[in-house]
């Protein structure tokens, strides 16, 4: 079936199926997928329209896991044909048709880390990103349509799709979410920006067409909306809710006295707090649409999630997915302990929290641990990304940090090649803050701009800025005569930032800049950066594969509690349409306005706007990059199959969900 790319022509139209899959785990015995007594008919090609889902397995005989077949035999579960929709989603396999059974052993850093069962391990959005990273395909819906002006989106559900408790999924579940959750000010006091019109900021309209069709409308073109729905903001629990379950906790459907008693008995002060609690991942009573659902939750550990008997996908031979019976999360205190378990071969398949710096150790122990070491590509334009505070409260530092030439000089003072070889063991690519090569809008010139190590050029720029006076140690003084000291605040969690910043401190001595790295708790860095109190903070430049739906790294940005903040006052001005914060310089206002245009652009208008957007970010160097395009290292047991050798890893792709974890399996024998 044809597939329409989103990057240069009609990025909104889409078709095909999210390709590449992944994983499986070892421990409990696995049974092969049962041979059907009547083989399914050959998969027919779908009509080649851009919004039609992949080919569907005809309603012949479907197969199911032995553990579910036993329940059917006992009369406690309907036959598999009655549990699947009329047109199940068909998922291709990475290597081969899998085997049923087994437990996927993983590890979580703290109990809350297991919540990824409903995001990264349960990527069930309306639509999904395809492997090309520029197109999306139907997922929970069987097809969708976009109006010519990109103001109206029509979604067609798969008739017969069911929640994990067997109740039908219908358009009413989307209307309930919209009317009784999104528009309820007590539950949702602030409606997220991606549910608002890109021009007039009005909330979108969702309406039911029939039981299996609903529409979403905006007053202005919102070309990016379908991409937003493919990412983290489009997760099923953020666009849909099981009405049949949640109405028992909502005042629109329950008498006040009854709901007050329920709330009090559950030890909550307000009904909306109780309602929010019932939607949390660790409520096993809440119906789900994901491959696995929790059956043992904190404080009980290990955390256990078992297969969803009503999961609505099959493989190409009609075997209901997932192949794996259950996912088990052991809980540890920190990433170091998790990595020790990985080295020892105690994890079946995991990339999350696996440190690439331990790569030599993983390779050394792979044979003993009976696992293979895999390397996917992190969607990080830069791992150690510097966020210079351009809205600094100190006027002297603000004048410098908000000056493009000063930032360019700092960038030329960094020896990225040395940092890559020594701090990153040669795994990365020395580069400027920019998109990764797999992105549709990547330009090599962006990765190279201001990135060469040239102390002579940097010194010349600083001299031209008037920073010619130095102290007795040779460090430059500010324009007001005070010592020029930059404190870089960081936390040592997502990379070898301690080593990187120590090297950078020594390198900047060559250009007369005194820099002091300051290691702090992550919460403290976020608190200070989000309040505009840092000189420079450090974060990762992720989101660089599908960046238009999360543009934080390409505009001056700042928010309370966010360590990747470099312009809190300017960003506040942008969000409040000038009612709060401080008016930014013209080039910043133009970038904000350009992104507003991008959000609402029609398909044909988007490419040149996006190109200009990333050109502007590159030229203005609001953030300073170091080393990026690092591998995302994972350990995978040798009998854990259907994990792709290559994939791009990112939160916006909900990795490893973008590799179709439902088709991972554990090979026996």
Q: Explain this structure to me?
A:
- By secondary structure, this protein is of the alpha+beta class.
- Helix content is 26%, strand content 17%.
- The protein has 19 helices and 26 strands.
- A hairpin with a 6-residue loop joins strand 5 (127-129) and strand 6 (136-138).
Tally the helices.
Answer: 19
Identify the strand order in the major beta sheet.
4-14-12-11
Net shape: globular
- Spatial gap, N to C terminus: 36 Å
User: Tell me about the biggest sheet?
Assistant: 4 strands, mixed
Brief digest:
The protein is of the alpha+beta class and 669 residues long.
Q: Helices, strands, pairings?
A:
Layout: E1 30-32, H1 66-74, H2 80-83, E2 89-90, E3 99-101, E4 103-109, E5 127-129, E6 136-138, E7 141-146, E8 152-157, H3 171-182, E9 205-210, E10 213-217, H4 225-230, H5 243-246, H6 256-265, H7 271-278, E11 292-296, E12 303-307, E13 313-314, E14 326-332, H8 335-343, E15 349-350, H9 359-369, E16 371-378, E17 382-388, H10 395-401, H11 404-412, H12 416-422, E18 429-430, H13 444-448, H14 455-464, E19 485-490, H15 497-509, E20 514-519, H16 522-530, E21 536-541, H17 568-575, H18 586-600, H19 606-620, E22 627-628, E23 631-637, E24 640-641, E25 648-649, E26 665-666
Parallel strand pairs: 2-13, 4-14, 16-25, 19-20, 19-21
Antiparallel strand pairs: 1-3, 5-6, 7-8, 8-10, 9-10, 11-12, 12-14, 15-23, 16-23, 17-21, 18-22, 24-26
Helix pairs in contact: 11-14, 18-19
């Amino acid at each position: 079936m044809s597939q329409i790319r989103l990057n240069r022509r009609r990025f909104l139209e889409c078709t095909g199926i999210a390709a590449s899959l992944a994983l499986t785990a070892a421990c409990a015995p696995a049974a092969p997928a049962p041979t059907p007594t009547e083989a399914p008919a050959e998969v027919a090609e779908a009509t080649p329209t851009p919004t039609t889902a992949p080919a569907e397995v005809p309603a012949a005989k479907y197969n199911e896991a032995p553990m579910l077949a036993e329940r059917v035999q006992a009369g406690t579960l309907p036959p598999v044909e009655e549990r699947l929709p009329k047109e199940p989603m068909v998922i291709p396999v990475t290597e081969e048709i899998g085997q049923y059974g087994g437990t996927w052993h993983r590890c979580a850093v703290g109990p809350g880390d297991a919540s990824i069962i409903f995001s990264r391990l349960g990527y069930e959005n309306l639509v999904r990103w395809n492997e090309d990273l520029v197109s999306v395909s139907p997922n929970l819906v069987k097809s969708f349509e976009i109006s010519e002006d990109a103001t109206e989106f029509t979604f067609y559900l798969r008739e017969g799709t069911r929640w994990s408790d067997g109740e039908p999924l219908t358009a009413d579940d989307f209307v309930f979410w919209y009317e009784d959750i999104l528009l309820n000010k007590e539950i949702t006091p602030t409606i997220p920006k991606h549910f608002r019109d890109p021009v007039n900021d009005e909330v979108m309209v969702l309406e039911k067409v029939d039981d299996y069709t609903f529409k979403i409308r905006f007053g202005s073109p919102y070309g990016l909306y379908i991409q937003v729905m493919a990412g983290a903001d489009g997760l099923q629990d953020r666009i849909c809710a099981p009405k049949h379950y949640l109405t028992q906790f909502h005042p629109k459907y329950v008498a006040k006295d009854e709901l007050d008693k329920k709330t009090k008995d559950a030890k909550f002060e307000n009904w909306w707090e109780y309602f929010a609690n019932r939607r949390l991942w660790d409520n096993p009573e809440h119906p789900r649409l994901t491959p696995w659902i929790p059956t043992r939750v904190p404080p009980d550990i290990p955390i256990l999630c078992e297969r969803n008997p009503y999961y609505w996908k099959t493989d190409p031979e009609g075997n209901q997915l997932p192949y794996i019976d259950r996912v088990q999360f052991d809980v540890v205190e920190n990433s170091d302990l998790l990595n020790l378990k990985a080295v020892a071969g105690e994890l079946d398949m995991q990339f999350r929290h696996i440190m690439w710096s331990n790569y030599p150790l993983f390779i050394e122990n792979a044979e003993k641990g009976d696992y293979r070491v895999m390397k996917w590509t992190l969607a990080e334009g830069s791992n150690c990304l510097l966020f210079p505070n351009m809205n600094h409260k100190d006027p002297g530092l603000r004048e410098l940090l908000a000056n493009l030439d000063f930032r360019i000089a700092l960038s030329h003072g960094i020896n990225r090649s040395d940092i890559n070889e020594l701090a990153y063991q040669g795994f990365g690519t020395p580069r400027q803050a920019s998109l990764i090569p797999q992105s549709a809008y990547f330009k090599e010139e962006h990765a190279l701009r201001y990135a060469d190590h040239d102390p002579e050029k940097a010194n010349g720029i600083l001299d031209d800025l008037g920073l010619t006076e130095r102290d007795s140690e040779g460090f430059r003084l500010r324009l007001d005569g005070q010592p020029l000291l930059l404190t870089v605040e960081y936390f040592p969690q997502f990379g070898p930032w301690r080593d990187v910043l120590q090297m950078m401190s020594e390198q900047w001595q060559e250009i007369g800049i005194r820099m002091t790295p300051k290691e702090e708790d992550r919460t403290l860095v976020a608190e200070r950066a989000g309040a505009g109190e840092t000189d420079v903070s450090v974060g990762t430049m992720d989101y660089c594969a599908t960046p238009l739906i999360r543009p934080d790294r390409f505009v001056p940005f700042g928010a309370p509690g966010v360590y990747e903040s470099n312009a809190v006052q300017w960003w506040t001005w942008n969000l409040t349409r000038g009612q709060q914060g401080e008016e930014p310089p013209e080039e910043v206002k133009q970038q904000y306005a350009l992104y507003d245009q991008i959000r609402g652009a029609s398909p044909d208008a988007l490419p040149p706007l996006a190109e200009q957007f990333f050109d502007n970010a590159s030229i203005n160097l609001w953030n300073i990059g170091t080393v990026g395009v690092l591998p995302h290292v994972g350990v995978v047991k040798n009998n854990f199959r259907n994990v792709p050798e290559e994939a791009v890893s990112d939160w916006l792709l909900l990795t490893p969900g973008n590799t179709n974890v439902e088709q991972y399996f554990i090979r026996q024998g």
